[in-house]
């Protein structure tokens, strides 16, 4: 085992770990009343600026520009139009960042480009979520106050260091409530420590499995399926450990998510690995982002909301070929899942048939999710073509064909 790799949970893990003592110190000083609300806002903002400078270097400018623009929009636009302006400006900037950094020949060892893209994507979540709150009237920015008094909480929220490089989406209302009334009874270090241990355990497991990954080139039949499943499992373990570490940092700073509102818990991990429904996996995977997408796109789209949600997710992730193919495939698989399961359940009458139904659909869900994850993580057309032309495509194609047949059957019955 390569023990040096155990701390390499993600490109930003070292910065997250370095921020832990400062997060714990901030929570202690806030809970003990030694920092006023204004000092808390300033501390979080200063910590975010320092962390951005250390983790991103000169690329930090790509984060500070949209932060300033978003604050100006939030303070100047009317509630009726603030969401449209904020969404348009932030997604335009994020797309330019993706295209601009992708067009450059960067050093593969330089993680700053990956860090800045991740931070800008998280900023988009916070900006659009806050703009929707203002648009819907659930958040007011107190126009009676001075400009600096109104801008400071916004800047602090968009750049506060525990959630700058990762973590589930923290709403502005919860952020402001935690600043104004920091909890004194909550003990965040215990919860943060448990999450860190879980992240470490997941990374140990990932390191153990890494040596078993077979290359997809030259595989045939079941060996291709095993290779794809192992590769997807490594991706999942990396995401799981990443989310655990993100939530641990938020816990240490006193901004831990409410019950059921984080990205990953023990029950979520169980659901992700045992569910026999692709749709359930999609809702449970990265839950805060799923809820954000549902609110931002699914509930506001008048036609084909499922397809629109996954298409926007591909745009938000960067529109690389693997992402476009993977997320559109995911949308088709979820739609097929909604129709195939009622059809199969109605025919599984006996106990043996029900066990067969659950076992077979669990296996299909695992393989389909693995296919989607490997597609999304493909970094080139050649990798995507290799996946598409392998035997792994048989099951997604079968689901697509089953969806088509069920839709045609429904249409014939209606006619």
Automatic annotation (TrEMBL):
<keyword id="KW-0012">Acyltransferase</keyword>
<dbReference type="InterPro" id="IPR049941">
    <property type="entry name" value="LPLAT_7/PORCN-like"/>
</dbReference>
<feature type="transmembrane region" description="Helical">
    <location>
        <begin position="386"/>
        <end position="408"/>
    </location>
</feature>
<keyword id="KW-0808">Transferase</keyword>
<dbReference type="InterPro" id="IPR004299">
    <property type="entry name" value="MBOAT_fam"/>
</dbReference>
<feature type="transmembrane region" description="Helical">
    <location>
        <begin position="355"/>
        <end position="374"/>
    </location>
</feature>
<keyword id="KW-1133">Transmembrane helix</keyword>
<dbReference type="GO" id="GO:0005789">
    <property type="term" value="C:endoplasmic reticulum membrane"/>
</dbReference>
<dbReference type="Pfam" id="PF03062">
    <property type="entry name" value="MBOAT"/>
</dbReference>
<dbReference type="GO" id="GO:0016412">
    <property type="term" value="F:serine O-acyltransferase activity"/>
</dbReference>
<protein>
    <submittedName>
        <fullName>Ghrelin O-acyltransferase</fullName>
    </submittedName>
</protein>
<keyword id="KW-0812">Transmembrane</keyword>
<dbReference type="GO" id="GO:0030258">
    <property type="term" value="P:lipid modification"/>
</dbReference>
<keyword id="KW-0256">Endoplasmic reticulum</keyword>
<keyword id="KW-0472">Membrane</keyword>
<feature type="transmembrane region" description="Helical">
    <location>
        <begin position="6"/>
        <end position="29"/>
    </location>
</feature>
